[in-house]
Each structure stands twice: as C-alpha cells, then as structure tokens.
Design goal:
single chain, 453 residues, alpha+beta, Ubiquitin-like (UB roll), Creatine Kinase, Chain A, domain 2, six-stranded mixed beta sheet, 12 helices, globular
C-alpha cells in the first residue's frame, strides 16, 4: 500500500485522525508576539503543496496591528517568505467543529536562508551555537496564567472567573487542590486537548492569584518545548472560552494580585555522553554551571526587553509579590531571580524566574540561553550567593519599557548571538509599541492630575 503524507504524522496526530476524514490543515507560523499567523487550507490542497507564502511584513506589526519602521532601506515592499511545514509539529486542533490539524512552518527567503527575525529561527540559531561546542541545552518551562471572567470592555478592570461553587475565584490559596477544583471543567478540557495534541503535562497547581494556575511541562529540546508553549497558549484560551471565561497570559492582569511568569529551568548536557555539564565527577557544581549563572547575571538586564516585552510586563516586578526584583541567585530560594532547585547532581539545573508569561516563548528561551552561553564561553562568574530574602536588596533590572529597550539596543554581544537583523526589527517594533502607549492618557492621570496640578 502506497504511503501518504499522513503516514509521516506524529503518533498523537495519527491517533486523533484514526478512522476519521481530515477536513482542514492550519498552516501557521509564530510572529514576534507569539500569535499564530498563516492560512487554513483544505486537507486535499495541503497534500499537494510543499510550501506556501506570506509577506515578511507579518514580523513588522505591533501588538495593536499598527506598522513599525522595521522594513529596512527598501521600504514596505513586502517580500514573500517561503514557508515549509515541519511535519514533526503536526498537531490536532480538537476545539474545532471539524477534523483539523495545525502544522508549524519554517520561514526562509527565496535563496533558502532562514528569515533572521522569525522567532523559531532565532531560537534554532542559539541552540546551534551550543551544539557546535558539543553541548545540548535542555529546558523545562513553567506556565502561569489566569482564568478570568469574560471582559468585553477594556475600560473595566479584569475580574476573576466564577468558580463551580458560584463564588468568584479566591486569591491567596496557593497550592490548594480545592481551589483547582473550582476550575474543574476548564482543566478537564485542557487535559483533553493536551492529550489529543500529544502533550504531557507534568502537573497543574493553583498559584497565589485569584484564578491563577500554573502548568509545568517536562524537560527537553528548547525548540520542541517552545512549540509546546506556543500551542498550549492557544489550547488554554480555547478551553476557557468553552466555559464562558477568558484565559489571559498578561504579565499583570489584576491589580493587587501576583503577576504571571514563564519560569525557565536550564541544564546543559554533553552531546556524546549525556552527562549533565553542571555537575562534576564527584557531584559538585562545575565552572560551566557558574559560568551560566554569571552570564545570566551579566547579560539578563540587556535581555529584559525580550523577557518583559510590553509596558504591562514591568508591573510584575514588585517587591514581595512572587516576582523577582533583581538577579541574585540562591539555592532553593524563591525570592531570587535565579534559583537553584533541590535536585541530585544528575538533575542539577538553573531556574530563570525573570520572564513574564507574556513573552514569546521562542524568544524568551532564546534570550535566556544566549545569556547563559555568553557566560559559559567567556568564563564569567556570578556574584556571591544570596542566602537571605533577596527582596531586601536593590533592584538591578530595568523598571520601565523605555529603559529596557535602551539597554537592549546597546547589547552588541547579545545581538551577535540572537542576530543583528532580529535585534534591529525587534527594536523597531517595540519602540513603535512604546511610543503608541505613551499617547494614551490613563484613568490614573485623569483622576489625580486633571484638577490637582
């Protein structure tokens, strides 16, 4: 029997389609904010096409849909990119009315060169730098988010969703199983969608905010895990919509509640032996371990514009509010920006707690890996370990978007790792977003300045 393209699908996608007729394929690519862009085509057409095209200008748009000055010297001629499917990413879209698959595509120009400002290509570039040295980077993301009441009026504050008890979701109930049960129907759909897509959830817990949950993912290849976070954001939103609620990944959606982070656990293994390079033969911490830490402390302030990509992101960095205010490091210390979790030598890892859940997962992971890489190759050394409450110390990360963009613009070493053309486009888009935000007059300003100044 002749093989077809569906025989190349991952096992979960084949199981999803078993005995069913595939109707549609969504051909998608993540843009700078992490939104899925692309086309939906009939399955019969997808079977005949080896590639499709989208204009490179999808990477020049701001989060509001406006256009930045990122097109380059030629202007907005909107060259077509060539998008080819990565069939290893084929995944169910189980919330649709028909039988649909999603497939993430890779972006190249007409000469076959990777589009340098495509987030997936940026992450691949950084991972390849590790592999060129015989290192295999391993990551494990943690995703925090809120399930909130539907909000159709941007002028109204965001409120927690109504739980199954008939009461709004309560705050300050971290790790409460009963609190998780309040969202039972939403969580059931999250599990069902994840199973249909072939994703393994390591656990779901209630966090400290009202309606705030955390999903932990198993460790693995950075690109694969970024793909999963990209897919998870969509499936969680779809699960919430089924139950008259919204899922939000804003860094700080509700006043006086904790923000939402994407903690990234890092380790690096030897490609030949599989040995964790953060642990020595006797189980102690190695120079590469300290170099990775030193790289994060040295270069992470320059990367904050990627880890905290919107003006709202900086509302998360509040003292004593479950988010770091500096880049101190400590063993099993959740007040530090860089935490060393409890583990044996074989599982030794570094947890970067800086990134907000609003960051693009490809770019957030790429930036964190880039900082660690610079520390390892340049033999940087971290400051002395913090053994107390890190909130007693001073903040050492940018506090506003403008300052973060200035630091990223000057970060030539980081540009070399992530790609100068990516840095140019990213800065142009984020400057445009920031300038647009500065034109908005907030309720706080009208309340306190209108008659008092």
């Amino acid at each position: 029997m002749a093989r077809t393209w569906t025989d190349q699908l991952p096992e979960a996608a084949r199981a999803y389609l078993d005995g069913r007729r595939l109707d549609e394929v969504e051909c998608i690519i993540p843009d700078l904010p992490g939104i899925a862009r692309g086309k939906a085509v009939p399955a019969s057409k997808f079977a005949r096409q080896a590639q499709f095209h989208l204009p490179d200008s999808i990477f020049f748009q701001t989060i509001t849909g406006e256009w930045s000055r990122a097109a380059g010297d030629e202007g907005y001629i909107e060259r077509d990119m060539i998008l080819t499917p990565d069939m290893g990413t084929a995944s169910a879209a189980p919330w649709t009315a028909d039988w649909t698959l999603q497939v993430i595509h890779d972006a190249h120009d007409r000469d076959g060169n990777p589009i340098p400002f495509s987030p997936r290509n940026v992450l691949r570039k950084v991972v390849q730098l590790y592999r060129d040295r015989g290192w295999e980077p391993i990551v494990a993301p943690e995703m925090e988010f809120y399930i909130v009441a539907r909000n159709l009026d941007p002028a109204r504050p965001i409120e927690p969703m109504m739980g199954r008890s008939g009461r709004p979701a309560a705050a300050r109930q971290a790790y409460s199983v009963t609190a998780v049960d309040e969202f039972g129907p939403v969580i059931d759909d999250i599990y069902d969608f994840a199973e249909a897509q072939g994703f393994e959830i390591d656990g779901i817990t209630q966090e400290g905010g009202a309606g705030q949950l955390e999903i932990n993912l198993r460790h693995g290849d950075p690109v694969k895990l970024a793909d999963e976070v990209f897919y998870f954001k969509r499936l969680i939103r779809e699960a919430a919509l089924r139950h008259d609620s919204f899922a939000t990944f804003m860094a700080k959606p509700i006043e006086d509640e904790p923000g939402s982070a994407m903690h990234i656990h890092h380790s690096v293994v030897d490609m030949e032996t599989g040995r964790n390079l953060f642990s020595g033969p006797q189980g102690g911490e190695t120079d590469l371990f300290f170099g990775f830490l030193g790289g994060l402390q040295t270069h992470m302030p320059e990367a904050i514009a990627i880890m905290a990509p919107y003006v709202n992101s900086y509302r998360r960095y509040v003292k004593d509010f479950a988010a770091p205010i500096n880049l101190e490091w400590g063993r099993d210390n959740r007040t530090t920006g860089l935490r060393i979790p409890l583990s044996g030598p074989e599982a030794r890892r570094i947890e970067n707690r800086i990134a907000g859940m609003d960051c693009n997962p490809y770019l957030g992971i790429a930036a964190s890996l880039a900082c660690g890489y610079l520390g390892m190759v340049n033999e940087l050394w971290p400051r002395k370990q913090c053994k107390t409450d890190a909130y007693r110390g001073e903040g050492d990360i940018p506090q506003v978007m403008g300052e973060a963009l200035d630091q990223f613009e000057a970060a030539s070493a980081l540009h070399d790792i992530l790609g100068p053309e990516f840095a140019r486009v990213y800065l142009a888009v984020k400057r445009a977003e920031y300038e647009e935000f500065l034109q908005v007059i907030s309720p706080w300003e009208r309340e306190h300045l209108l008659l008092n100044v």
